[in-house]
């Protein structure tokens, strides 16, 4: 699962008999890194060896080990027939006729209705991109990049103009972040290879970031959003406690790396300003070198060569480094608030084995649509629709939202929509609530 990377040849043969018959109990026993089975359309596959070669990363495969992965498989892959040929060597059998098609706590009625909705949307062309829309998105980024440089080149490097240049560059970087997100999810071109090429160009040359690092991290988030030990976005490195479960667990165990009852205050000093310029960049450098991903490294180097060639003549080496650090800090504020207001106030817990729709709706919410909100968030204010249909071009989210809302109402699944202000405030409020839960458990349990 996960749409990143390119498939080249089928994987290693699975162990066991291709005509085996298994129960869910037998499948669920194969759920660790060295022994992974999964079920897709009632077929049982041994993915233990293939996981290491999976284009979307081995971790996202592991998150569905011992489970039914049918819904995630359909959500991530644009050409199911093509991808299924890579599954054939991994096939070891199927579920027994007496076994249900879905495991554990998954709602069969919700799954059936969602599959029907997805088929309807495919028929209506909701997964087809409008080339002009994405050309305009790329155009605005290139224009902003050029404008920032021209301002300094023509009028000089005063503090006021430098600040204006930094703001324009931060806007370009953030909008490039939303655009790379589209290519990374294979939302733009029918040919996967074109999406990959443009993803590396935008992510590597326009942003100076590893495309593969982003893919392997982000697909895990989509596969298991807000699930501890599976979604890297809720791995807070002991800086914060989030949700309602983790704070109590930390409190009972008397874990106190930081005064978590004040986390809603120090979040403003640690989260928004440092996520991209500090944490993300350290992880990118480590990941690229550890994986020896020389292609992504070359793309990243091309960005920094271009940036330094443009700005060193006017700012010098240290001035240019200071400029890019400030731009990263501005971008980081924008990125953190947009991404966290959709997820942080929602349910964050250990694995519950929910069906695709229920899992995504419990962990995501929408922000009201407007021309500004859509542009400011890269259409991720339609976070629910994006998580349900990660391959859908973002310009279609507003068209499918009423149908998703109707599906949720039919099955009694909360569909949450907030104002932008309420979403931002809820980030702080949720951190305070989690911190209070930790303090109560730490002192009294």
From TrEMBL:
Pathway where it operates: Lipid metabolism; polyunsaturated fatty acid biosynthesis
Location(s), subcellular: Membrane
Predominant place of localization: membrane
Residues in Cytochrome b5 heme-binding domain copies: 19-96
Mode of membrane association: Multi-pass membrane protein
Family annotation (CDD domains): Delta6-FADS-like
Record Pfam families: Cyt-b5, FA_desaturase
InterPro entries in the record: Cyt_B5-like_heme/steroid-bd (IPR001199), Cyt_B5-like_heme/steroid_sf (IPR036400), FA_desaturase_dom (IPR005804), Fatty_acid_desaturase (IPR012171)
Catalytic activity: (8Z,11Z,14Z,17Z)-eicosatetraenoyl-CoA + 2 Fe(II)-[cytochrome b5] + O2 + 2 H(+) = (5Z,8Z,11Z,14Z,17Z)-eicosapentaenoyl-CoA + 2 Fe(III)-[cytochrome b5] + 2 H2O
Any single biological process term in GO: unsaturated fatty acid biosynthetic process
Alphabetized UniProt keyword annotations: Fatty acid biosynthesis, Fatty acid metabolism, Lipid biosynthesis, Lipid metabolism, Membrane, Oxidoreductase, Transmembrane, Transmembrane helix
Cellular component GO terms held in the UniProt record: membrane
GO molecular function: acyl-CoA (8-3)-desaturase activity
Entry's EC annotation: 1.14.19.44
Regions crossing the membrane: 266-289, 301-327
SUPFAM superfamilies: Cytochrome b5-like heme/steroid binding domain
PANTHER family attached to this UniProt entry: ACYL-COA 6-DESATURASE, FATTY ACID DESATURASE 2
Protein family per UniProt: Belongs to the fatty acid desaturase type 1 family.
Name recorded for this polypeptide: acyl-CoA (8-3)-desaturase
Lineage: Eukaryota, Metazoa, Chordata, Craniata, Vertebrata
């Amino acid at each position: 699962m996960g749409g990143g990377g390119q498939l080249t040849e089928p994987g290693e043969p699975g162990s066991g008999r291709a005509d085996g018959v298994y129960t869910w109990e037998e499948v669920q026993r194969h759920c660790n890194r060295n022994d992974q089975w999964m079920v897709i359309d009632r077929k049982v596959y041994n993915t233990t060896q293939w996981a290491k070669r999976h284009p979307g990363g081995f971790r996202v495969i592991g998150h569905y080990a011992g489970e039914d992965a049918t819904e995630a498989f359909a959500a991530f892959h644009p050409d199911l027939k093509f991808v299924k040929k890579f599954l054939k060597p991994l096939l070891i059998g199927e579920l027994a006729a007496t076994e249900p098609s879905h495991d554990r706590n998954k709602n069969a009625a919700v799954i059936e209705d969602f599959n029907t909705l997805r088929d309807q949307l495919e028929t209506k062309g909701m997964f087809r991109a409008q080339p002009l829309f994405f050309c305009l998105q790329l155009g605005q980024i290139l224009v902003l990049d050029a404008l920032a440089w021209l301002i300094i080149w023509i009028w000089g490097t005063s503090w006021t103009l430098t600040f204006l240049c930094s703001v324009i560059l931060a806007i370009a970087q953030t909008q490039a972040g939303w655009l790379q997100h589209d290519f990374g999810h294979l939302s733009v071109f029918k040919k996967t290879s074109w999406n990959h090429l443009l993803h590396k160009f935008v992510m590597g040359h326009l942003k100076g970031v590893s495309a593969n690092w982003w893919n392997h991290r982000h697909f895990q988030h989509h596969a298991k959003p807000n699930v501890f030990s599976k979604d890297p976005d809720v791995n807070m490195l002991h800086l914060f406690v989030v949700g309602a479960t983790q704070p109590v667990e930390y409190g009972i165990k008397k874990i106190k790396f930081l005064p978590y009852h004040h986390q809603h205050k120090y979040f403003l000093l640690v989260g928004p300003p440092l996520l991209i310029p500090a944490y993300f960049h350290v992880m990118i450098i480590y990941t690229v070198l550890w994986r020896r991903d020389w292609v992504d490294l070359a793309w990243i180097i091309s960005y920094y060569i271009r940036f330094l060639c443009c700005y060193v003549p006017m700012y010098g080496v240290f001035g240019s480094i200071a400029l890019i650090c400030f731009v990263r800090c501005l971008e980081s504020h924008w990125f953190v608030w947009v991404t966290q207001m959709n997820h942080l106030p929602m349910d964050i817990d250990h694995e519950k084995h929910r069906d695709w729709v229920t899992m995504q709706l419990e962990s995501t919410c929408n922000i009201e649509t407007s021309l500004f909100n859509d542009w400011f968030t890269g259409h991720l204010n339609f976070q629910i629709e994006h998580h349900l249909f990660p391959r859908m071009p973002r310009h279609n989210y507003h068209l499918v939202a009423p149908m998703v809302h109707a599906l949720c109402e039919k099955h009694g699944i909360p569909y949450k929509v907030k104002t932008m202000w309420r979403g931002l405030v809820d980030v702080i409020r949720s951190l305070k609530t989690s911190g209070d839960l930790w303090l109560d458990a730490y002192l009294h349990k």
